[in-house]
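ok trying this again, last paste got cut off
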Amino acid sequence: MQSFDTKQTFIVGRIDDLPPSACISYELPDGSDLAIYNVGGEFYAIENSCPHKGAPLSEGTVCGHIVECGLHGWQFDLRSGECLTVRERIKTYEVVVEDNLVKVTLTTDYTDENPI
C-alpha cells in the first residue's frame, strides 16, 4: 500500500483582519468552512463545524485555547482538536504568518489500496 500527502495553502486574511481574541470563518473551494482564531497573537485553524449537530464553531465562545459550541456547549481545544466534553475530535490545521498574511495549510493523505 502506497501513501502520499498533498498540501494546499490558502491565504485566509491579513493579520489586521484578525486582531487578538478575534475569529473569522473562511470558506474552502469545496464548500467546507474553517474557523481561524487569534489567541494572544497565536493563530489556530479548525474545521468550522461541531460534530454534534454541525453548528459553526466560529460563532461559539472562546476562553483561552478553548472554544465552546454555541448550540449545545461542547468544548474543543483549538490546539489539538480534542473535545473536552465527549470522546470526539475536530480537525486542526497548520497556520503560518508570512508577510502579514495568515495562511492555512491543509494536508490530504491519499492511500493507494490497490498497488500495481
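PB: full thing came through this time. The two ends are 9 Å apart (CA to CA).
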